[in-house]
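user: Please review this fold.
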Amino acid sequence: MSKQFQFKLVLLVLRFVKDQFDDYRESTIGAAFLTQTVTLEDQTTVKFEIWDTAGQERYKSLAPMYYRNANCAVVVYDITQTASLEKARTWIRELQRQADPSIIIALCGNKSDLSARRQVSEEEAKKYADEEGLMWTETSAKTGEGVTEIFTAIGQSLYQSQQARRAEQLPQPRNSR
């Protein structure tokens, strides 16, 4: 029997939902709502309710409305711009301070197809992710590399967390004397 779970996710992504890339696409204004599902190895279906907030500074005051009750967040930085990792760190601190303490946060370096123009090393980003307890990967929205994999990994992590919470809520057997 197939199991299905639904989770709220905040992020920046069109490639994952529509498997599209447009060099000339305008960035999200405010926020966009999308849904997508992934199927895990055991055939469990994870449905993501996705709020794409684009992380723009001018909409920062609205961000708490979107990440309230979020189960996970994907914070994206551009590997070709050092400043974007700093901005990502700011958003991660905000999530750690304001979001649910059990939120799963993934740090995602985008534009891996432009590695010749890299300014943020894999080592630096991975070290930061490890120190903060974040999932980490690099992707390319242009080629699709790594996009499905990060969402499948997030789905697996959410599913395992859900299973652990359920196990904790089960009545514990009494020791007989």
In short: The radius of gyration is 17 Å.
